Amino acid sequence: MALLASLAGGLAAVGKLLGAIYPKMKSRIRFRSNLEKLNKEMGKLTNLGNAVKEQIEEAEKRRGQVAAAPAVTMWLEELEAINKEVNSIEAQVQQGNLCPTTPSCCCLGCTLGEKVSKSLTEVRRLIEAVKFFSNSMVVENCQLKIVEHIPGPSIIGQSTASKNLMKVMNLLNDDDDGASKIGVWGMGGVGKTTLVKNLNNKLQTTAAAASSSSIAAQPFSIILWVTVSKEFNLERVQTQLLNRLNLEIKAGESRESTASRLHERLQREKRFLLILDDVWEAIDLDYLGVPQEQPEFQLGNKVILTSRSLDVCRQMKTDIDVKVDVLSEEESWQLFTQNAGKVATLPHIEPIARKVSKECSGLPLAIIIVGASMRGKTTETLWNDALNALEMSVPSVKGIEDKVYKPLKWSYDSLFFQDMDIKSCFLYCSLYPEDFSIQVRELVQCWIAEGLVVVRKSYEDSMNRGIALVENLKDSCLLEDGIFNHTVKMHDVVRDVAIWIATSSKIDGCKSFVQSGIGLNQISEAELSKSLNRVSFMENKITRLPDCAIRCPKVSSLLLQGNLPLEIVPEGFLLGFPALRVLNLSETRIHTLPLSVIQLRKLKALLLQGCQNLKELPPLGTLHRLQVLDCSSTNLEALPEGMENLTDLRLLDLSETHHLRHIPYGIISQLSRLETIDMTNSFYKWGGKKPKEELEKAPIDELGCLNQLISLYINLNSSYLAFEDLSWIKRLKRFHFVIGHADEKLLVQQKYEEKMVNLGWVDFSGECYWVKQLLENASNLTLDHCRELEEIPAGLANECYCFVGLKSLTITDYYGKFLPARESGDDRFDLLPNLEELVLHEVWYLLSISQLARLLKLRLSTLKKISLSCCGRVKYLVSSSATLENLEEVTVSSCRVFAELFENASSSQSSEDLPEHATSSQTLVPSCIVPNLRIMKLKNLPHLTTLCGQLQSWQHLEILEVINCNQIKKLPFTTQNANAIKEIRGELQWWNDLEWDNKYTKSSLQQYFNPC
Fold it and tell me: Disease resistance protein winged helix domain spans which residues (predicted)?
């Protein structure tokens, strides 16, 4: 048994030995076979490695900043390692001269056999691994470019665009201005995108310079460009950001999840700039995934957006908005020649080419397209043909319709204004001539008459709604400010687009025929058709109208104003326009209207302004729908018959009717819906009840019967006002009452004042109870050529009555002497406790405003503005004891003896000269007299030598104007007290001759000086 056990143990040991050496023997036995397989598989792997490297190199060429995916990088590293191992095996095989019969060779062969076997397994694994990353060979390089170049035209040579570029650059670099969001807005094709592309590329240049320098000049760690476009799509915008930031685009991912990833990624940026180009509606940046809450934006992150609409900028809460305007004529020419080439400057072409360039109206997009279309054309005929085509509103130059008109029409298509037909309102503006300044109120009146503005509770509410719509069109760059106040106009190209839309429109009620401002002498009947809705022949030289009924049954607006030679409107002409709602014959020489006007039963606005030959009108009693009757600046002597039947009349304009003498008794009181009566500078004077022989004239109490009346501008006859009850004036929102003679220029300036009373040649020594009734509701009072001003407060002071609503007082041409004020009532009494503005002109015997204040019992505690002119004896404004804490603006001109602003200012001593126990306030003008002064304008004051005391300080002064005040040798400024100054105006010689305490003060203020 022991022997068997011993044999069993020996066999087990032999089995273990054989198990250990068998794999080695197997490798040795299969060595040659495995080595051949290894060489073959290694060849395959090497080819795969080369293919992978080629794909990476190709991706780098196509996509720029990319790198091999991490798995690919590891695979290439493993390939390199196995390649070295196989090369090592080959070297050993070649150098070892292996012989299977020798023990040493046997041992070495076993070792190599194992290596070959292991290497073969590894090579096969690497070959198989390629399949798993064949579709994700490369990834974007994690080192992103700070800025990516955006191709676009240069603005070199365009001074306006360059200034805008520098303005935006400064806003980006200045973190103290609080401008986190910047809006760049303007009409389509004006160059907004070009501006921000140049901005982006300029920042790219800055980034490149910063990367090659040790100085960190680039203010942003990354700049992102996103094109939004009209059809806003949040996912598409988010995808642009994901691509820019090398973030994975996950199919089916929710907007919220994408926004969260973008937000997290952008938060890691030190400081980013996001440019959103072509924004048509407000975008929620939080929903997009852009950090904007505090404190991120405190770190200097910025957002720039471009839009055609200022309203979009406002909705996105931009901090500063930069408007991009059209090019100047010279800039337009430079851009035009860049695109048209040298042919545009040929002697026989240049005069025409300049006209062609001018027709593009400074719109860069149009200039580029037209210029490029004329490149290489050397014959005058072709250039003249292009000029003629551009002068037409319907495009015929190649590319204009597709590349200029249609993009601008997008702005039209996107118009929206609640409860309003804003598109038709916009098209209506094209009825006016090119470059014509349109009166806003007249335009809105036409819109209301056309039914384009929703009728509201009152006509004024509808007017206000229409004015808001005008502002909306301005914000959309489809209208712009005219050259006069309260006017708008259309850019030439925008007008052409509007006419193009209106003439080709299939929208019901919008088809227009526009022949305005083109020098027509007569109307071509053949061009008027039954399909038209609006017709404009305004601002021509038409001498006569067709004496027949041209059938235009749908026309609702007929504009004929501005045809100065036109004297007669034939009876038959108006019969062809039965649907008229607006008829405008203003600024013509017509003597009357044809009787056929009574057939226009749908007429709502009859505009006859400036028809200076118009002396009478036919009976208008059949025009029951008439809302606006404008007979201003005509020679009407009386109102037309049938006026009492115009029960829907809302606005009656009889201003500047210098021959109007008769308004029949009982007519006006029947116009119960009247809201506005304007009789500014009319000859007709309203008064109280008159003697029996004059009862046929309307008394003022008829106006008191008009419960809807809110605006009233009339002349009053003070002779019949003494006992009238004028309490109804309280319900007026605006009024302008003129008593006696008034300066017409002054009335025009004050036309838009809300509640104005103008008293001319009134003697206050008599009974003036009616004055109290007028003034207790007024905000502005003008006293022109009046007498006995000291009598005004005498009775009022006794009853402590004051006019709390009066905020402005103007006194002109007062020649009375200023006697000592009567001692009456409380010394603390203030006749005008809320007075903010005081204007004095030719008040001959006045010595100072302090004297006037004592006379009229004014404390001036709320005064903000003083204007003094042609007051020959005024020596100073106020005494040194006065305190005008709220005074912000002072203007003094042509006062020949005026010597100092504040009494004793010029005689002030320095603090070193004061007695030992005296304070500066004892001898100097206290610095608190006018602590909040912002604007000071001084002109033609030959005796004025100083502005203030030596220790005075005007910390808030922003504007100083000194003209022809040559005795002023020194300004009260130091480098410490001139922090608010924005502008100093005066003669250059005066500025150069000024004396300064030190040269640093002048050098610091030099930048604010503008010579006049």
Answer: 431-498
